Amino acid sequence: MFGLSFFRDFDKPLVIILLALLVFGLIALFSASYQRHIDTGKDFVLTQGIGILLGMVVVYLIARTNYHSFLSVAYIIYGIHIFTLILVLVMGKSALGAQRWISIGGIGIQPSEFSKIFTILALARMIGDNPHCLQSKRGLIKPFLIAFIPMILIFKQPDLGTAIVILPIFLAMAWVGGVRLKYFLVAIGSGLTAMPFFWHFLKDYQRDRLMVFINPNVDPLGAGYTINQSKIAIGSGMLIGKGWLSGTQNQLNFLPERHTDFIFSVVGEEWGFVGAAIVIGFFLLLMIRGIKIAEMTNNLSGKLIIVGITTMLALHVIINIGMTLGLMPVVGMPLPFISYGRSALTANLIAIGFLFNVRMNRTIF
């Protein structure tokens, strides 16, 4: 089962990039969760480490199974995941003002983290089976609904960040799938035009976050507190940082959610511009590798899977780092492979598994 010939087929640059990000993440997480571990006794690094080991098994299993096997059941998987999203709204567990989790065997799972991957598979199947469906208005309806349905269900939880990510994924896959330029521009224009209307559907705390993005000083001790502390942490790191376990905003508990959504702030404070640039550099290499694999892939469905996953990961990185710097609104988006979180980590490792899979089967039709 674990033959050496199979491991030789793995994309070596992708392996190096993934391992570097995972190790970097554990080091950053140890510092970000150090004080919380002392206070609560919970070992976040151990939990994340176990998640990584289990996730790597998942990566292997996905990479070993030809992606066409997943495409053959993509609609079934998509239907099940839509059911779980509905289940979250009906009987999900609430935390931090959102109802995003369901408990299975005592383990909290966030279905929206996996929704992006299942949506990508369903879109890749539909567009791959009907390569001309994007050439007409009627043909666009089904692919659009595949993206729109989970987007609305996730928005209702509410999880604005994940809901927002699904639309650009759809647009990127539609572009590569051959959608007509006029339809593509109309879709972008319609989305931008509709944005002001979404204000009326936002929760109060989401509106507060948007107002803080526009004016960080409007509520410095409330909605604006975290982002202000994040910018202080990153700015104080300067060129080479204050040193590992030596960040004052981090270790003195000034920075909330520093082990999850705001872990990049810890990186900036303790490792400075140099450390932050290294992390960003590895993410950039990951995106470049994804684009390269897409270029090498002859099968349209396989190409669309790579485009969707690369777009997903890129958006996560851009939005997370952007919000820690105050360049984007705070939407609760974890940094892939760095932030603590079992559902996000597993979903991102599944995504990487498909990158390996398509890379090894890129010429199969």
Give the SSE map.
Elements: H1 4-8, H2 12-32, H3 34-40, H4 44-64, H5 67-72, H6 74-91, E1 93-95, E2 98-104, E3 107-109, H7 111-129, H8 137-155, H9 160-177, H10 181-198, H11 204-214, H12 225-237, H13 248-251, H14 263-296, H15 300-324, H16 342-360
Antiparallel strand pairs: 1-2, 2-3
Helix pairs in contact: 2-4, 2-14, 4-16, 6-7, 6-8, 7-8, 7-9, 7-15, 7-16, 8-9, 9-15, 12-14, 14-15, 15-16
Overview of the structural elements:
The chain has 365 residues and is mainly alpha-helical. It has helices spanning 4-8, 12-32, 34-40, 44-64, 67-72, 74-91, 111-129, 137-155, 160-177, 181-198, 204-214, 225-237, 248-251, 263-296, 300-324, 342-360, and strands spanning 93-95, 98-104, 107-109. It has one domain (8-360). It contains 16 helices and three strands.
How would you sum up this structure in a few lines?
Helices cover 71% and strands 4% of the residues.
Q: State the distance separating the first and last CA atoms.
A: 25 Å
The DSSP helix count reads 16
The proportion of residues forming helix, as a percent range, comes to over 70%
Radius of gyration: 20 Å
Low-confidence runs (pLDDT<50, min 5 residues)? none
Which terms would index this structure?
mainly alpha, three-stranded antiparallel beta sheet, 3 strands
